């Protein structure tokens, strides 16, 4: 299942293709990811992603390359018989950081240990943000 938030238009630096960002719940079977993503101009609202589901959107980078989207995320699970609640807020897309890493297709995988982002040059996922302890 993919939730697609539509096309977000910003002042474009050129007629290049839009950037596609997706965030996928890869935490574990039965664990829901609660996510709320936004920029200074756009608020996508609250979404709940079941395991394997994605939230995705596309936009154009602004002329100053200062485009920034952040997401508040949380999830809960039972680990070793204990209830665990994890939450954090992360810059999920930062044009200055991410253009060189993923260009216009930026995929993020949310897992128990870390939020991973695809690095095109390495051809692999890398840990971008660790969950707070």
TrEMBL record:
This is S-protein homolog. InterPro entries: Self-incomp_S1. It is found in: Secreted. Belongs to the plant self-incompatibility (S1) protein family. One of its GO terms (biological process) is rejection of self pollen. Coiled coil: none annotated. It comes from Papaver nudicaule. GO terms for cellular component: extracellular region. Keywords: Secreted, Self-incompatibility, Signal.
